[in-house]
């Protein structure tokens, strides 16, 4: 790779008393086998050690939920993201993009991110009444039980349930529960809808 040099590598340690040596890019190797909290801690530590460097995460991932940590990393300022399963040429491409000042996630990761954000935002379209019923449904309550507990007609709750499923575009209550759970998690939800609007997603390179 032209004009790119490896200046060194090290394990993540506790924050040093003095800033790390200057560099343009840090590739941080993380693993989904470790808790997200630990990976976030390492990422914050590296950001503090190299405040001027762009950070590219290379993550060892697990099957079904390949990109589950991606949004958390992006919210912490990561400029690029690749996995250990990506071809070498994709990793090289990501380095060039990030060094050029762009953001980078692969095509599959970008598709997951768009789907995730779409699902995360759908609950914002629910009325307060619908949101209350949605939470009860996600907790496993039946329509008849919700009607009884809220002193409403079963037909009314059924109508609200249909509206919820239509607005959230989900086919089962398990998926609805996942969406509501993400929205209630301050670490993984709250600012995500503001920080990664569709306008900003246009800046990602694939």
Automatic annotation (TrEMBL):
Domain of life: Bacteria
First and last residue of the signal peptide: none
Ranges for domain HTH luxR-type: 119-184
InterPro entries xref list: Sig_transdc_resp-reg_C-effctor, Tscrpt_reg_LuxR_C, WalR-like
Keyword Cell wall biogenesis/degradation assigned: no
Pfam annotation, one family: GerE
Keyword DNA-binding belongs to the record: yes
Keywords, in A-Z order: DNA-binding
Protein name as it appears in the record: HTH luxR-type domain-containing protein
């Amino acid at each position: 790779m032209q004009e790119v040099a490896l200046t060194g590598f090290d394990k993540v340690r506790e924050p040093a008393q003095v800033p790390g040596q200057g560099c343009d890019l840090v590739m941080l190797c993380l693993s989904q086998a470790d808790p997200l909290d630990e990976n976030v801690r390492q990422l914050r530590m590296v950001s503090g050690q190299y405040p001027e460097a762009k950070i590219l995460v290379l993550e060892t991932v697990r099957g079904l939920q390949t990109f589950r940590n991606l949004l958390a990393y992006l919210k912490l300022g990561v400029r690029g993201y690749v996995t250990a399963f990506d071809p070498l040429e994709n990793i090289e491409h990501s380095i060039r993009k990030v060094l050029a000042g762009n953001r980078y996630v692969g095509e599959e990761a970008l598709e997951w991110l768009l789907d995730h954000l779409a699902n995360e935002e759908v609950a914002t379209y629910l009325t307060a009444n619908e949101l209350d019923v949605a939470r009860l449904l996600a907790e496993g309550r039946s329509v008849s039980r919700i009607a009884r507990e809220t002193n409403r007609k079963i037909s009314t709750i059924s109508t609200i349930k249909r509206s919820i499923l239509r607005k959230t575009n989900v086919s089962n209550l398990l998926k609805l529960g996942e969406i509501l759970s993400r929205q209630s998690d301050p670490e993984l939800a709250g600012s995500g809808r503001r920080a990664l609007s569709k306008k900003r997603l246009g800046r990602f390179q694939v």
